[in-house]
């Protein structure tokens, strides 16, 4: 059955469908970067509110700024912006069609349609999932990268911006002129302090062309920090086969694990849906939740995926089924990451490590090592290196984390241990590959990449451990290195 408003009543009885009238929904949110994660997470929370008869004036309008986003728009428009979510528990499968999205702005280089949509007074929240590397952060200073070519374009042409942030600024300029007020800007990406980072990007970019507008945005808009969590694989042939086996013709289905978490700073200048009524947590202190999730789950993903890539292991579940990789994750997380984390309501750090390991092991979630290892140049500085710095400052072990970085360096050399090629898997792949190959004879060359490591190359303890591991991996392989680490007290 083709997915559409008129076809909902004809779907199999086992499929949960919207119980609300989608024709009466009105928009309240624009979401930029509408991929699988958003639909399995934020859009699902809103859908569940709508199922309770609430938040019908908060429907989502999707948006994107990349050429490929136009294809996503076409796919979703053809099925009335409905999405099939397939929850993959280890023991069974549940399917649910969500209807909280009602439109998608036209995708064009000047972002005119996106700007107009955000300028509409009915929009009160603009949210984003644009990846950790999408916020124009200078890797060396962690400040705003004003020299990036896209930023320079938007500063010179603020009315025809090429970035999502430029479009946000253009829309806010129109709203200020019209007297319709600000909206909340909400990042849903895996960045600690993601709201503060989004504020930095938007306000700094605005200041390049209109300092008065920058001040107005900084004063009137809110940028809540948030932590988001749900493992959502990419959609491929097996996912398409699965949705078809359920009797649904969906051109863009989403599979996900049977776990979600959303922790949000309650700072919304123009109102918000009551997401807490369907399981989200509002708090004035997101930091501890963020730190635990980013360092254990996201950092843990790098621990297992980079090793798995070198060993030609295709999925994260298969990585955790590998005894040495599973033990490597457990020991590094327990001994080197957890000492710097605080308990959060309902969860002790040790129990959280066990939970993450269990989630990684779900064999129904076909989450590829390649997807998880993608963009290490953003993910290692964001998810792993902060734990190294904390360990050095607190005099706690860092040998396992140094091994994590050596495995990444070896992976970036571009070949697996069986000799097969690792296709480009990072925006800076060519530079990383060239540096990794040079580091084979001199490990310090890898650590000299200050944009990722800062001054860690000058730390004798870390540099010695990294050098030891990298030489061992090149000589005897990653399994030998993991085995040696696991034998250390």
Automatic annotation (TrEMBL):
GO MF terms, alphabetically ordered: oxidoreductase activity, acting on the CH-OH group of donors, NAD or NADP as acceptor
This protein's name: Mannitol 2-dehydrogenase
Gene3D superfamilies given in the database record: N-(1-d-carboxylethyl)-l-norvaline Dehydrogenase, domain 2, NAD(P)-binding Rossmann-like Domain
Protein's UniProt keywords contain Oxidoreductase: yes
Species in which this protein is naturally found: Yoonia maricola
Mannitol dehydrogenase C-terminal domain: residues covered: 285-473
Source species, domain of life: Bacteria
Matches recorded under SUPFAM superfamilies: 6-phosphogluconate dehydrogenase C-terminal domain-like, NAD(P)-binding Rossmann-fold domains
Residues spanning the membrane: none
UniProt keyword annotations, A-Z: Oxidoreductase
Phylogenetic lineage: Bacteria, Pseudomonadati, Pseudomonadota, Alphaproteobacteria, Rhodobacterales
Protein biosynthesis listed as a keyword: no
Residue span, Mannitol dehydrogenase N-terminal domain: 28-277
InterPro entries with a match to the protein in the record: 6-PGluconate_DH-like_C_sf, 6PGD_dom2, Mannitol_DH, Mannitol_DH/Oxidoreductase, Mannitol_DH_C, Mannitol_DH_N, NAD(P)-bd_dom_sf
């Amino acid at each position: 059955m083709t997915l559409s408003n008129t076809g909902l009543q004809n779907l199999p009885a086992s499929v949960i469908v919207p119980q609300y009238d989608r024709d009466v929904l009105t928009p309240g949110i624009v979401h930029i970067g509408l991929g699988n994660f958003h639909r399995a997470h934020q859009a699902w929370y809103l859908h569940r509110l709508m199922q309770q008869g609430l938040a019908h004036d908060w429907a989502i309008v999707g948006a994107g700024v990349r050429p490929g986003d136009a294809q996503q728009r076409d796919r979703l428009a053809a099925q009335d912006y409905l999405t099939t979510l397939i929850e993959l528990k280890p023991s069974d499968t549940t399917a649910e069609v969500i209807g909280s999205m009602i439109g998608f702005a036209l995708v064009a280089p000047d972002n005119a349609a996106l700007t107009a949509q955000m300028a509409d007074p009915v929009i009160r929240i603009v949210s984003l999932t644009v990846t950790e590397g999408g916020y124009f952060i200078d890797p060396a200073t962690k400040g705003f990268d004003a020299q990036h070519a896209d930023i320079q374009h938007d500063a010179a042409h603020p009315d025809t911006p090429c970035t999502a942030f430029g479009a946000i600024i253009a829309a806010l300029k129109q709203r200020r002129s019209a007297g319709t007020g600000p909206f909340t800007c909400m990042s849903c990406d895996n960045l600690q302090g993601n709201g503060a980072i989004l504020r930095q990007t938007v306000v700094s970019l605005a200041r390049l062309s209109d300092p008065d507008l920058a001040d107005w945005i900084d004063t009137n808009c809110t940028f809540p920090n948030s932590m988001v969590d749900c493992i959502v694989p990419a959609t491929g042939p097996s996912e398409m086969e699965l949705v078809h086996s359920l009797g649904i013709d969906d051109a863009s289905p989403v599979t996900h694990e049977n776990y979600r978490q959303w922790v949000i700073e309650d700072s919304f200048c123009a109102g918000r849906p009551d997401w807490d009524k369907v399981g989200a947590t509002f708090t004035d202190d997101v930091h501890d939740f963020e730190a635990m999730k980013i360092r254990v789950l996201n950092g843990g993903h790098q621990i297992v995926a980079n090793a798995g890539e070198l060993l030609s292991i295709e999925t994260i579940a298969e990585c955790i089924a590998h005894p040495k990789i599973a033990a490597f994750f457990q020991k590094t997380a327990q001994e080197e990451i957890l000492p710097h984390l605080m308990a959060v309501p309902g969860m002790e750090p040790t129990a959280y490590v066990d939970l993450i390991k269990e989630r990684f092991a779900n064999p129904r979630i076909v989450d590829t090592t390649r997807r998880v290892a993608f963009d290490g140049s953003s993910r290692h500085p964001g998810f792993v290196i902060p734990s190294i710095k904390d360990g050095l400052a607190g005099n706690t072990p860092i040998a396992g984390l140094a091994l994590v970085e050596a495995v990444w360096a070896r992976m970036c050399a571009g070949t697996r241990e069986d000799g097969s090629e690792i296709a480009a898997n990072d925006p800076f792949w060519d530079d990383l590959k060239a540096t990794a190959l040079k580091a084979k004879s001199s490990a310090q060359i890898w650590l000299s990449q200050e944009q990722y490591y800062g001054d860690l190359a000058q730390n004798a303890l870390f540099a010695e451990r990294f050098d030891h591991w990298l030489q061992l991996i090149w000589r005897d392989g990653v399994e030998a290195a993991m085995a040696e680490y696991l034998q250390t007290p």
